[in-house]
Amino acid sequence: MLIFGIVLAIVLILVVWFIGAYNSLVSRKKRVENAWSQIDVQLKRRHDLIPNLVNAVKGYMKFEKETLEAVINARAKAVAGGSIDDRIKAEGELSGALSRLLAVFERYPELKSNQQVSQLMEELTSTENRITYARQFYNDTTMKYNTSIEIFPTNIVARIFGFKAFPFFEAAATEKETPKVDLSF
What we know:
By secondary structure, this protein is mainly α. The chain has helices spanning 2-58, 65-80, 84-105, 109-113, 115-150, 154-161, 173-176. The protein is rod-shaped, with a radius of gyration of 24 Å. The termini are far apart.
């Protein structure tokens, strides 16, 4: 009878641990999904701002048609959606195209003094800052989740229920380049 009680206690402890591990993994997965949705909200805001900005600068930037088309095409790819991996890649391309557009602004002093363009640029800069914060939060929650599905013994529960790792949001190659500053006048 004592052995049966010990075996029953061990089984109960394992069941309670198994349920706790499963619930912990589900909770962390939901946090990652929530973090991604926060990025999505900011990306939607950026996607909505870009057409207004492009329309506002078209008249000024007659000779920068290639840059504007790159921004429009990158936005279209980003809006098209797809998996998280596809969206991360598309958003990286869009960030690179926007960086090139912002660099071109410096060549047009009359454009910088336009109130509508200035307001759109401020909103875009604010949105970029929010996206950066949301990306950091997403990567933090993703790291915790990915770690929990890889460490022992929760990796057993993760494998049984098919928990998959989420990709990290990494800066695009164009964002990693050192900006070129030309102070020659």
